[in-house]
Amino acid sequence: MDSYSLIYFVKPEGVISNWEYFWYQIPYGAPGILTFVVGLFLSYFAFQKFRKSKEDNRYFHLNLTISFISFGCVGLVLTTRAWIQDVETLVLWNDLLYFFVAPLAPTAFYLAFHMTGKQSKLLLYYSYVCWFASFVLYVGVILGKGFETTVFEFPFGKYPRGSAFVRPWGILAPLGYFLLILPSFIKHYHYIRKHYHLTLFHGVNLLFLLTTLNAPSILGFKVYPGGFFLFIPMLLVAYGVFRSDFFDVNELLFQKNGMFYFLFALLSFVLIFISFGVSFGLSPNAYESAKWYPWGIPPVISVFGAVFLSIIVAGANPSARINQLCAFALILTGFYVIQSVPLKLNISYVVQLRISQMTFVAFAFAPSIMVRLVFEAIGQKSPGWLKWIDLLCIIAAILAPSPYLFVGYYDYPWSRVHHGGPAELLVGANGAIALVLVLITFLRNKGYINFASKWIIGSFLLSALLLLAALLPSHGIHIYPIADFQFIPAFLLGYAVLRHGALSLEGRTIQLSQRLANLGLITMAIAAILYFPLIREQYGVGESAFHLTMIVLPLVLFNYLVVYIMSRPLAEELDISYFLLDLEKQKADEEREKALIAQDKAEEAREESEKLLLNILPYKVAQELKTKGSVNPVRFENATVLFTDFKGFTKVAEGMDEQSLIEELDACFTQFDEIILRNNLEKLKTIGDSYMCAGGLPVENRTSAIDACLAALEIQSFMNQLKEIKTALNLPFWELRLGIHTGPVVAGVVGRFKFAYDIWGDTVNTASRMESGGETGKINVSKETYELVKYFFVTEYRGKVHGKNKGDLDMYFVHRLRPRYSQDPDGKAPNQYFREVYSRISRGANIRWKKES
């Protein structure tokens, strides 16, 4: 094993090829690519807001969309200046891209005008002036006189001079910022802060400041342009706008498939880059070293296996958070192993180093994504310590393109291996910390974690151990980097997530996507077979097969990605269209039936009276009343009665007018009605601000206590959400006491002209005492109810509490569902396992519970 230290190199003196120049310059231009990707990503969602905006906000969101595209293209322009050596090619690309950059100034001034409440008219007029300057710029670009071939040369790129067509545009934007936007923002600061999130204010200012920081390099000063980092203020602006418009980030990333599109836009770029890089960048002498075989086989399998699985997992259900996190984790794993392949080829070390730096920028975030995936799998919220993992990930990603990632390399029999520097050690330490914390979390909760989640955690632990083992050869220990075998935990992870229940491949149109993808695979396979004899003339059989694999496999996966993944949202929309058509057909059939029924007025009147009766009485009771003309009282031995009452109702009601009071109360009780209906309970009556319902009648069942507790959790959750909204709006709110008791009751119908279904017995009184003896925001149950639900819910014994005319009563608080029965971290919604046990109980099964430890 030979060791080589690395002097962080600069471009060699003299003439070098464009290909070599590109690799030397990659770190300088990479931030611009990130800015471009972020700009496109945000412009898409800003356009979605534009489509749904009201008239007064449409211009704002349209300008925001154009602005994101323009600022993103600024990053792309700066990247071309860093990566392109040939001046004429550079000027051509700058001319083309400035078609998209030109609207930057006028749209930004319009955004500032809108943020001031349209009070600073000068900003609007100045945006018109900037549009005129943009028009002049367009004229110069069309005439081929946008930029001159005279350039300033810096270590970070070549910067062409702008012509007289471009200079007015370049001067107006920074001048207008300092003379108009900044004073207007100061003047209307209170208005902006009141109507917009503060990050929007800071983001717009930072956009102009970073854009202005491009000026020194354009004027010939050796200052790295701030425009490379425009993605930071763009994210601030997007966050500020979306927060101000009550835009839900979770909706953006998952319900709107934002994470899905972002991941696979990035992945598409990487796949194309790999295929073209191998096609045009690898010469026959790259295989002169024998290290590519067999050492190059495991990392190739790992890379393409991880990518293929990420496509399958994410495409299976684009809106599922666990699918997207799993796909992200698989892609990051693949990114890490990518850098291992070129190290086994006989190519320039600068190429090997740059590829490793680029992959480590993404891979630095692997601990953060994997921890989130684990906690999503076990149904818990992300822990507080995760923010420190995130911070270390960001620091490591920033250091990845720097000289601190690697300080040299070792030459082992199987390949070169980079000698890890401080940044690589930081990535490893961050992964080790995440590994230990996840392991502790697993050991604490292993009794509540299902089988598939254990597979997910196991794959994470195995992947982390393989990656940590890779630190050994990078610090001179003669051990093969077993991280090349990442395909093993990758396959385990993909299997686990699909087993977790996140797979959703139903629908008629998705079958078409799969067939198109398979057709593309067959086409490329045929093309590869035809291409093989051509490269066989330059390479040996093994080298030809390896070379062809590295070219064709990325294209195969890209084909699969585009046809299968990108067509899936369209397929889902078509499936929805099919469903809506079927629904409309059903509605048409129903209307036809109603028309026939309407011909018989007597029948229609009878049906209306029956509907009215069912609104008043339960179905079984109503049928008995219709048949016999009366209802016999019935005793139910195990009914569960639920009472609610608003605390402070009288005080809050005194400050409300009658109409608002009735509407507020009706809104609450309407929600209660829907909740108890979902949970198999019967509403009995409301008395003022009190609400009464019961379960286990008029048809007896064995689950009334469980049903009542589930309904109570939903009711308290609804009241808590209502309280948060009222508090945010600085409005008074009601808090709820809720009591439950299970026992015998007698039920019957009272009245001759206004029927009412009611219940009587000591159980009703005890349930009322459970409510009055409870606490606001909590669910108070009796000992009888507790004995029936204790195995399903997390409870708290309160001791004996005095109840009026009832003496001391044992009371318990019900807090949530036990984790093993809950599908959400808060324990409000039951999971599939709960439903299976519930179904058995309802069918009469006797469940034997394990003794609690």
Automatic annotation (TrEMBL):
<dbReference type="InterPro" id="IPR050401">
    <property type="entry name" value="Cyclic_nucleotide_synthase"/>
</dbReference>
<feature type="transmembrane region" description="Helical">
    <location>
        <begin position="387"/>
        <end position="405"/>
    </location>
</feature>
<dbReference type="InterPro" id="IPR029787">
    <property type="entry name" value="Nucleotide_cyclase"/>
</dbReference>
<keyword id="KW-1133">Transmembrane helix</keyword>
<feature type="transmembrane region" description="Helical">
    <location>
        <begin position="164"/>
        <end position="186"/>
    </location>
</feature>
<feature type="transmembrane region" description="Helical">
    <location>
        <begin position="425"/>
        <end position="443"/>
    </location>
</feature>
<feature type="domain" description="Guanylate cyclase">
    <location>
        <begin position="640"/>
        <end position="771"/>
    </location>
</feature>
<comment type="similarity">
    <text>Belongs to the adenylyl cyclase class-4/guanylyl cyclase family.</text>
</comment>
<feature type="coiled-coil region">
    <location>
        <begin position="580"/>
        <end position="615"/>
    </location>
</feature>
<dbReference type="InterPro" id="IPR001054">
    <property type="entry name" value="A/G_cyclase"/>
</dbReference>
<feature type="transmembrane region" description="Helical">
    <location>
        <begin position="292"/>
        <end position="313"/>
    </location>
</feature>
<dbReference type="Pfam" id="PF00211">
    <property type="entry name" value="Guanylate_cyc"/>
</dbReference>
<feature type="transmembrane region" description="Helical">
    <location>
        <begin position="546"/>
        <end position="566"/>
    </location>
</feature>
<feature type="transmembrane region" description="Helical">
    <location>
        <begin position="96"/>
        <end position="113"/>
    </location>
</feature>
<keyword id="KW-0456">Lyase</keyword>
<feature type="transmembrane region" description="Helical">
    <location>
        <begin position="455"/>
        <end position="472"/>
    </location>
</feature>
<feature type="transmembrane region" description="Helical">
    <location>
        <begin position="125"/>
        <end position="144"/>
    </location>
</feature>
<feature type="transmembrane region" description="Helical">
    <location>
        <begin position="478"/>
        <end position="496"/>
    </location>
</feature>
<keyword id="KW-0472">Membrane</keyword>
<feature type="transmembrane region" description="Helical">
    <location>
        <begin position="28"/>
        <end position="47"/>
    </location>
</feature>
<dbReference type="InterPro" id="IPR018297">
    <property type="entry name" value="A/G_cyclase_CS"/>
</dbReference>
<feature type="transmembrane region" description="Helical">
    <location>
        <begin position="198"/>
        <end position="221"/>
    </location>
</feature>
<feature type="transmembrane region" description="Helical">
    <location>
        <begin position="325"/>
        <end position="343"/>
    </location>
</feature>
<feature type="transmembrane region" description="Helical">
    <location>
        <begin position="227"/>
        <end position="246"/>
    </location>
</feature>
<keyword id="KW-0175">Coiled coil</keyword>
<protein>
    <submittedName>
        <fullName>Adenylate/guanylate cyclase domain-containing protein</fullName>
    </submittedName>
</protein>
<feature type="transmembrane region" description="Helical">
    <location>
        <begin position="258"/>
        <end position="280"/>
    </location>
</feature>
<feature type="transmembrane region" description="Helical">
    <location>
        <begin position="59"/>
        <end position="84"/>
    </location>
</feature>
<feature type="transmembrane region" description="Helical">
    <location>
        <begin position="355"/>
        <end position="375"/>
    </location>
</feature>
<keyword id="KW-0547">Nucleotide-binding</keyword>
<feature type="transmembrane region" description="Helical">
    <location>
        <begin position="516"/>
        <end position="534"/>
    </location>
</feature>
<keyword id="KW-0812">Transmembrane</keyword>
